[in-house]
Amino acid sequence: MNDRDHFAPIARFYDQMMEHVNYVRWERIADHLSALVPRPFLHLDVGCGTGVFMELMRKNGWDTLGTDLSYSMLEVAGRSRGLAPLLQSNMCALPFSGSIGMLTCLFDSLNFLLKNEEIEAAFRSFYTALTPGGLAYFDVVTERMIEAHFNNTSWEENFHGFKSKWHSAWNAESRICETSIQINAGENSVTRERIYPLSFLLEAIARSGLTLLAVRDAYSWHEAGRKSVRLEFVAVKGSSPLLEKKFAAIDKQIRRLCGG
Predict the structure, then answer these.
(1) How far apart are CA 187 and CA 209, in angstroms?
(2) How many domains is the chain partitioned into structurally?
(3) Rounded Cα–Cα distance for residues 149 and 61 (Å)
(4) What is the DSSP string of 208-222?
(5) pTM of the full predicted structure?
(6) What percent of the chain has pLDDT over 90?
(7) Whole domain around residue 91: which residue ranges?
(8) What is the tens place of the pLDDT at every residue in 161-186?
(9) Can you give the pLDDT at residue 259?
(10) Residue 41 in domain
(11) Which helix (H) or strand (E) covers residue 171, if one does?
């Protein structure tokens, strides 16, 4: 993974640009899933960005901390939300061992890993960070998402006090989408996301030692399908018939929550 801070040119504008994102949906699902984790627990938000999701979980009474590779995004989280502790860290080598009860990695943070071995390392790092019985809730976007919204397209958006210009380039052979964002006449922020086959992700999860409880379409919470634009995964470090039974009940609650 390239450790350059690709978000530096847009970090202080990021929250305004992402006002349309439904962080509350993630908050509600995570809160339901947390019923599987013994209290008290420590929550780690991997790829926390500017800390919007962390702030929501703290309002729910969670003991939460965040990591991100982008120092500029962490700086916004600390300055605008007063969040701490915040750690600059690569998700492939998280500085935790057996201390995290609930781990989240949302808003396609995993797609920013561009190599198979980085995905494998990230899942192993999740496993190492979790307590026995700890839960991981994470997502990825699919090729369907790219084709619908980022398939070699350009657009502009106007906000209060600034304008953003976007351009995306999708390479079907490498399965990498490169997105360039320019604020006013400033420096371009260029990020790259890779789309991974579900089969590979499932194999990598299993090899990490995590036990997969479910992979769901993010918006219906039904089984993932060909039309799914975002996939959400729930995995646990160790499992038991009792935990799986509890998850089955919570799974139904979340599906009703999502209107599925």
Answers:
(1) 42
(2) 1
(3) 36
(4) HTPEEEEEEETTT-S
(5) 0.97
(6) 94
(7) 24-144+195-257
(8) 999 999 999 999 999 999 999 999 99
(9) 87
(10) yes
(11) strand 162-171
